[in-house]
Design goal:
Blueprint: E1 2-6, E2 15-19, E3 29-39, H1 41-48, H2 56-65, E4 78-86, E5 98-102, E6 113-117, E7 131-134, H3 141-145, H4 148-161, E8 168-172, H5 177-188, E9 193-198, H6 203-208, E10 213-216, E11 229-234, H7 243-250, E12 252-260, H8 270-281, E13 289-294, H9 298-306, E14 313-317
Parallel strand pairs: 8-9, 8-11, 9-10, 11-12, 13-14
Antiparallel strand pairs: 1-2, 3-4, 3-6, 3-14, 4-5, 5-7
Helix pairs in contact: 4-5
Length: 324
């Protein structure tokens, strides 16, 4: 089968197309024929791996994914595909079912096939489990592959906010994969009054996702003293900051909370994927797709994501040669 090997840490050129052996499912595993995946921010961080191993976070990352190169050289955290075969002990899935998944620290989605456990038990505290669920019936594979990364992270953060209906929520970075998901989930699942923060080019996009108000960070760097939010989500992470971002993080009600996507790793649950599917099928969630690339153009897709200005998701189509 075709797969993209990460030959070492560095620039997108370390991602090389290769022919590799097709995996066989073990007793408790599901073999999935992948139709689409996506280039997530986490994929880019792992591929680049700039932190030195003596740095505490660099050492932890090395332990989880590998020191000189990824322990699993096939990256990729999300997929949409079809169950091709199942192990003898699998009970939740059967061949022919259309599924989507978040693979956690197992990775493996930059390929034509992957095997995942039906139920992933934590191997260590640093292990992020994989989860699989039936895909939304009303979405293409490309749309479905764009659901789990931003959707799971957004659900995780919003759950921590304990948001109540009618509360005021601000999403800083509302046009990215996580932010665009958070706007829709906060609005439609939690019934919040949502304010999104983004650039001029993305104002109308964020409004179309359901934001009640949109702040253009290119046109203002402060907030009115009268504004206060019950929950503020920094959806871009702590590496990027600005005067406006700091003002947003301080603009809290007396019991308000501010959370960054960098505040700990989520523990994915199947319930997250089920909730995202239900929202998608109800017309309450539609992932934002910036660009689509074929699997063979993975390095080019990574170069685009490296620029740091993508809207929503960058999706990868995985074409299969049925003669092989």
């Amino acid at each position: 089968m075709k797969g993209i090997f990460c030959t070492g840490y560095g620039s997108p050129e370390v991602l090389q197309l290769a022919e590799i052996a097709k995996p066989n499912p073990k007793n408790q595993e599901v073999l999935i024929r992948i139709h689409a995946t996506a280039v997530t921010a986490s994929d880019v961080i792992i591929r680049d791996f700039k932190l030195p191993v003596w740095h505490p976070l660099g050492f932890l990352m090395g332990v989880v994914v590998g020191f000189s190169r990824p322990r699993n050289p096939i990256l990729g955290l999300v997929l949409s595909g079809t169950v091709e075969a199942v192990g003898r002990d699998v009970t939740r899935f059967k061949p022919g079912e259309q599924v989507y998944a978040f693979t956690g620290t197992r990775f493996g989605c930059y390929a034509e096939y992957v095997c995942l456990p039906e139920t992933d038990q934590g191997r260590s505290p640093a292990h992020i489990p994989s989860v699989i669920a039936l895909k939304p019936s009303n979405m293409t594979d490309e749309e479905t592959a764009a659901l789990p990364y931003g959707g799971i992270l957004a659900l995780h953060c919003l759950e921590r906010g304990q948001i109540q209906r009618g509360q005021h929520v601000l999403i800083y970075g509302a046009s990215g994969a996580i932010g665009s998901s958070a706007v829709q989930i906060a609005k439609h699942r939690y019934g919040a009054h949502v304010t999104g923060v983004c650039s001029t080019a993305n104002v109308e996009l964020v409004r179309s996702l359901g934001a009640d108000e949109v702040i253009d960070y290119t046109r203002q760097d402060s907030l009115s003293d009268e504004l206060a939010y019950d929950f503020v989500l920094d959806a871009v992470g702590k590496k990027k900051t600005s005067n406006l971002k700091q003002a947003c993080l301080r603009a809290l009600t007396p019991n308000g909370k501010a959370i960054s996507v960098d505040d700990g790793s989520p523990r994915p649950r199947v319930e997250y994927l089920v909730a995202l599917r239900e929202m998608a099928e109800a017309g309450q969630f539609k992932p934002v797709i910036d660009r689509c690339y074929p699997l063979e153009a993975m390095a080019e897709a990574h170069r685009y994501v490296d620029q740091g200005h993508k809207r929503g998701n960058v999706v990868i189509r995985v074409e299969h040669n049925n003669n092989i």
